């Protein structure tokens, strides 16, 4: 039943009348694909709340759908011939409006703050140059945009991720974007390809991509809740999953489930890795999706 709901929640790329709307729908599809994927260690999925008490699959899907107008607006901004500094400030304004829309839809629960930042930059960059839909090209354009200042951004947001960056001296979501999303381009997407090429199911390939990101990312969601000890346990556990064949192998699945149990015990959830998986799924989809019309 929930699998049927997942299919109905996912937007159709063919129904959108213009490229900006198709790009926005592709982002929402990636977010729904990410949250539906199971079993994910410590994360909300279609079967479990993971380490969360205030989130579930239904709320995450509702949040993703509520954010579709935000991502469409970001894509439209990217298609305009704005100078990059002006575009950066426009992206910031749309993103802050999107965050307010998210909080309104979820009654104050943070479901997709990190995804608005990461996927917002990527969808803008994708729209900026529709002739180059390669993951590396889009990520590089997004990085150039992320490195520009936004005069209207608040100096401090008070978000847990921001505090974790200061407390543990890590780059967080901002650093990942400014570097051109290396964990997406150099880790998640190559692992996705390798898993597919060796015959793993699509579910296993996506889980392997997620676990590969977890194995090395300084995830501020984990740092904020559990500090460096929890992060080390996460990374060691993720490496064990991959070392035992990944999600398509029996031993790998055993380690995946053990990691899930441990993260739930620690009450930590690798939300940063989940955002980067969604970014990877978005870029993967764009390579083949029809985004232009004859109109």
Provide the low-confidence segments as ranges: 3-8
Number of strands: 0
Major sheet summary line:
none
The mean pLDDT is 92
Share of β-strand residues: under 5%
String of helices and strands: HHHHHHHHHHHHHH
Whole-number tally of structural domains: 1
Task: Describe what you observe in this structure.
This protein has one domain (2-8, 18-148, 168-286). 51% of the residues are buried. With 295 residues, it is mostly helical. Helix 7 (135-146) packs across helix 9 (172-178) and helix 11 (202-214) packs across helix 12. The longest helix has 24 residues, at 220-243. The chain is globular and about 50 Å long. The model is unreliable at 3-8 (pLDDT under 50). The protein starts with a helix and ends in a 9-residue tail after the last helix. It has 14 helices and no strands. It catalyses: 3'-dephospho-CoA + ATP = 2'-(5''-triphospho-alpha-D-ribosyl)-3'-dephospho-CoA + adenine. This is Probable 2-(5''-triphosphoribosyl)-3'-dephosphocoenzyme-A synthase. Involved in the formation of 2-(5''-phosphoribosyl)-3'-dephosphocoenzyme-A, the prosthetic group of the acyl-carrier protein of the malonate decarboxylase.
What topology does this entry show?
Layout (H helix, E strand, L loop, with lengths): L1 H8 L9 H18 L20 H10 L1 H12 L4 H23 L6 H16 L6 H12 L13 H9 L3 H7 L3 H16 L4 H13 L5 H24 L6 H17 L4 H16 L9
């Amino acid at each position: 039943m929930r699998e049927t709901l997942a299919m109905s929640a996912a937007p159709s790329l063919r129904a959108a009348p213009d490229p900006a709307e198709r790009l926005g729908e592709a982002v929402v599809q990636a977010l729904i694909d990410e949250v539906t994927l199971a079993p994910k260690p410590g994360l909300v999925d279609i079967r479990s709340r993971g380490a969360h008490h205030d989130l579930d699959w239904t709320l995450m899907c509702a949040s993703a759908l509520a954010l579709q107008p935000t991502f469409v607006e970001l894509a439209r901004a990217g298609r305009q011939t704005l100078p990059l500094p002006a575009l950066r400030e426009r992206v910031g304004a749309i993103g802050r409006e999107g965050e307010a829309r998210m909080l309104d839809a979820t009654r104050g629960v943070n479901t997709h703050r990190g995804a608005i930042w990461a996927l917002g930059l990527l969808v803008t960059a994708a729209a900026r140059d529709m002739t180059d839909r390669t993951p590396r090209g889009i990520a590089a354009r997004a990085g150039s945009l992320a490195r520009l200042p936004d005069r209207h951004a608040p100096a401090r947001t008070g978000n847990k991720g921001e505090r974790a960056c200061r407390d543990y001296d890590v780059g967080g979501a901002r650093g990942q974007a400014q570097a051109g999303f290396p964990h997406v381009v150099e880790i998640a997407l190559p692992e996705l390809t390798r898993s597919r090429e060796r015959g793993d199911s699509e579910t296993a390939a996506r889980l392997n991509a997620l676990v590969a990101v977890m194995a090395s990312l300084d995830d501020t969601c984990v740092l904020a809740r559990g500090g460096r000890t929890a992060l080390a346990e996460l990374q060691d556990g993720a490496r064990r999953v991959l070392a035992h064949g990944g999600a398509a192998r029996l031993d790998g699945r055993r380690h995946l489930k053990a990691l899930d149990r441990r993260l739930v015990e620690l009450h930590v959830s690798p939300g940063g890795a989940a955002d980067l998986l969604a970014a990877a799924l978005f870029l993967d989809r764009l390579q083949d999706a029809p985004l232009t019309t004859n109109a």
